[in-house]
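Marked as duplicate of an earlier ticket. Keeping the data here for the record.
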Amino acid sequence: MDYNLQHLFSDLGIFVIEILLVGAVFYMIEKMRPAEEVTFFKPGFREELGLAFLNVSLFSPISIVVMAFFVMNVIQDIIPYQMFSSQIEALPITIQIVFGLFILDFSTYWRHRFTHHFMWPFHSVHHAATNLTWLTALRLHPIDIFTATVFDVLMLHLLGFSGVGLLGAVFILKGYNYFTHANINLKFDKPLRYVLASPHYHRWHHAGEKHAYNKNYCAMFSLIDLMFGTYYHPERLPKGYGLEPLEQKDYPDGLLGWLAYPFKQVAKNFKTKKEA
């Protein structure tokens, strides 16, 4: 069998196992205390599942390879040393993981904020979900995936963070991202809510209400939002989710439509500016 075909089947197997395991766990959790009444096969389920597979098996590995090549052949010549690498490696693994979680979420915060202000057509794929479940965490355009990889790899390289601590942090943050997107009616009491994001907290990031726009960018540490003035935590749940009404109305159906939509919007905006 051709190596590339073997690699594809391997990725497919890992993806299926992960989705089945995570899906089974969150299916039971979401049934216990749902924030909204939605069926498991909600609108857009097939597209979210397809996009998740493409990202895990194709776009994410490509992004990592491209950035690794860039770091080794360009960045490493400009910055030949990694700041704090020896200090980080000297820390206990537990502390390394906690430190790694904060570093990755700090990177996530600024990447997330960047995509909202400068790459909205691509990030809107994620926000077009009108029902939030754990699977929405994987609803990301490939360009969004690449942008996240650029931010994270550069941040980690500059600080010199790698090894077991990093792997542990990546694994935990990924699981936490599923948790905050899950259809769970759960919020944290004070003062914990000022430190960690809850599903309730992240639902306000997806809320279709104007006063909630551009809030709650973090994946795990709400403290980061608090530090930079983007913390928002009403006691009630949002009235609805998704994009602004006009944009939501014109949003395409189907996976190919989702993938093509941002490029069409960029071309449309460029043409409008050129004619102005």
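See parent ticket for discussion. Residues 45-78 form the longest helix (34 residues).
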